[in-house]
Specification:
By secondary structure, the chain is mainly alpha-helical. It contains 20 helices and 12 strands.
């Protein structure tokens, strides 16, 4: 085993066969936090040996996502397809040392063997048909041009045991493993070879990955033994489930990291939330800065039970992060989001900075900004359901008229004076503020939900405010 003093090295090994989703991002965040909190190093490696499904576009997307999340690395990025010569040399050495061997079995022969073993109630593993071929038998297969894979010799007795940081002691019976393929007949390495081989060559000390890969561990450790390499420390993370307790997938809505970015989640908020999916610092703390997460995170505190991805909680936590920004930083975040979304509001940066403070306490997602404040940037867009509430109120016209008259007499057009005038109108009419203010809010914003009324009126300006209220009165009449 490794010495306790060995520096910690983790790896981020995305498979570039699709978009980088929140489940993979959670795994990368756990690795990154663990290493960064212990002066460790991070290796980025793209496992792209699946040439049919791997794309350069997926690699570019992964790099973009990691950059946005603020997940950096110390070595790489490496691509396994650029290391094929290294793999071939290592496999040749294993074969020469009789720790691996060529397997000439055809697909039909393997299927037949599997059927016979299944009928006999035997473990469905490779029976070792090519494990003891003579040199002459191998030469005969080569002469007829039969393609071959390469299998690793795996011990057929005893047990493989690890002490997983999350799951504790885990054991496997070696007799149930069988000699597995490490190089396909087309010459490409399998995951069971390239992944652990790179971990060995890159000095990875800690492997934190999904529990769906737990079953691969004994076969990969057999390669460590064949190469006389020290085992890493494993931490198999719980699965990420949707609210229905089924594995997170597209049916649960936004689950690509970039989906959440486009909805207006801050990178620090997403890192904070994903760190909490299966891990906790204590039984009450949820909002944490990136620095606090680096300081506090420990794989040993990860709960082995499946974790649920709760989009409502993510949105709530994002709202907490938005409110923690200072005024200028919040306005900058809003403007950056508007630009990314291609919103015309981004063409008015000064106005955005002026309006942003009105909604900082209300937003959960930056994408909500335009819907809440659009009336302050251009003509009001009346929402039918909101106007119907005004039209159904028999006293709406009187409320609007009282507000119009009160506002017409305001001297300095600022929120405090506007509030004083409107409350005075409530006293004169005997109406409660919520009754008198409701139709005014709809008249100026087009919605029953808007930023603070007094501040909105101030930013809208005297002339536009009175014009919109008058227009609503006319519409009612």
């Amino acid at each position: 085993m490794r010495a306790v003093s060995d520096p910690i090295r983790v790896r981020l090994p995305p498979s570039p066969t699709g978009l980088l989703h929140v489940g993979s991002a959670r795994t990368f965040i756990f690795n990154w936090l663990y290493a960064r909190g212990r002066a460790g190093r991070v290796v980025l490696r793209f496992e792209d040996t699946d040439r049919e499904r791997s794309t350069d576009g997926a690699i570019e997307q992964a790099l973009r996502v990691l950059g946005w999340l603020g997940i950096d690395w110390d070595e790489g990025p490496f691509r396994q397809t650029e290391r094929l010569d290294i793999y071939a040399e290592a496999v040749a050495e294993l074969v020469a040392a009789d720790r691996a061997y060529p397997c000439y079995c055809t697909a039909d022969e393997l299927a037949g063997e599997r059927a016979r073993r299944e009928a006999a109630g035997l473990p469905l593993i490779y029976g070792g048909r090519c494990a003891s071929l003579t040199a002459a038998e191998r030469a005969a297969f080569e002469a007829e041009g039969r393609p071959h894979a390469v299998r690793l010799r795996v011990p057929g007795s005893g047990t493989t045991v690890i002490e997983d940081l999350i799951r504790g002691r885990v054991e496997w019976e070696n007799a149930l493993l069988g000699d597995h393929v490490i190089v396909r007949s087309d010459g490409t390495p399998t995951y069971q070879f390239a992944n652990p081989f790179d971990d060995i060559r890159m000095g990875v000390t800690h492997v934190a990955r999904g529990e769906d890969l737990l079953a691969s561990t004994p076969r990969q450790l057999a390669l460590y033994d064949a190469l006389d390499a020290a085992w890493p420390t494993y931490a198999h993370l719980p699965m990420v489930l949707g609210p229905d307790r089924k594995r997170l997938s597209k049916r649960h809505g936004a689950n690509s990291v970039e989906d959440w970015r486009d909805l207006g989640v801050l990178p620090d908020a997403l890192v904070n939330y994903l760190a909490l999916v299966g891990w906790s610092w204590d039984d009450r703390t949820e909002y944490m800065t990136r620095e606090q997460l680096v300081e506090r995170f420990d794989l040993a505190r990860v709960n082995p039970s499946p974790a649920v991805f709760d989009s409502e909680k993510l949105e709530w936590l994002n709202g907490e992060h938005l409110r923690a920004l200072d005024r200028d930083a919040f306005a900058a975040a809003v403007l950056d989001h508007l630009r990314h979304a291609g919103s015309p509001l981004a063409d008015q940066p000064a106005r955005v900075a002026e309006v942003a403070p009105l909604v900082q306490e209300k937003l959960r997602l930056l994408s909500q900004f335009e819907g809440l404040t659009g009336f302050l940037f251009g003509p009001v867009q009346m929402r039918p359901e909101s106007w119907q509430k005004v039209a159904a109120d028999p006293g709406a016209a009187a409320s609007l008229a009282a507000a119009r008259d009160a506002l017409a007499g305001v001297g300095e057009w600022q929120a405090p004076a506007i509030e004083t005038a409107l409350r005075a109108a409530c006293e004169r009419t005997g109406l409660k503020p919520r009754v008198l203010f409701a139709p005014v809010r709809v008249a100026i914003s087009g919605s029953t939900v808007s930023p603070g009324l007094y501040e909105s009126l101030e930013l809208l300006g005297r002339e536009s405010s009175l014009e919109r209220i008058e227009s609503a009165i006319v519409r009612l009449s």
